[in-house]
Amino acid sequence: MKLGLATLVVALLSTSAVYATPVTLTFTASGYEVPIASTGTSGSMFTVQPGSCATPDTTCTWAGNYTSSNPGFPSGSFTITTTLGSAGERLTGVQDTGNPDTLDITGAPSDVNTTITLIDATTGSHEFFFITNGVIDGSLAITGFETDNSSLFCDPGYCTVSEINNTGRSFEGEPFANFTFDDGNTVSNVPEPSSLALLGTGALGFATTLRRRLTRAA
User: Fold this and answer.
1) What is the CA radius of gyration of the chain?
2) CA–CA separation, 120 vs 139, rounded Å?
3) Structural domains counted in the chain
4) Domain for residue 33, yes or no?
């Protein structure tokens, strides 16, 4: 019976979210600019600074809102936090050959780590380890940039990846992106401390009541 009670407590405190099918979220422009620089022929390959980086340029942040059409996964807000091993490190992006208006994040130095935190009002906070020691899990594809620079080569207010690629030069703007993941064990709820306390109290009370009933039955 002790094993059964322990199992019950673990089940009540567990808040992992499992998704059986791939989930795609659309990240919107957010006030955080992401600089990219061409490194390949006609700009097909880029270095990508993952958001606004704090001095000494080793922690970078990109935050904003996302929309979702996936059942059980509401729209909400996101924060992407990247820790660089040394100042000035960058991610690698490659223009998708099948979709020239998409810039896929494809590589990172071995000392880079990126966590994507997703928050919605219904299911709470989730963390996704997108890059772990340079290894990428999931897909982050930049689909365009918003800018208020009317003198740019692209349409005022929005630049596509193709337009940037054709220039073969550097660019900086607020990105739109699609984030796709299908590993249900990687995304987990992170409940507030008060929620953990409430769950713990409820589990303890249930266990106490069950023990009393078993004692009377004996």
Assistant:
1) 22
2) 21
3) 1
4) yes
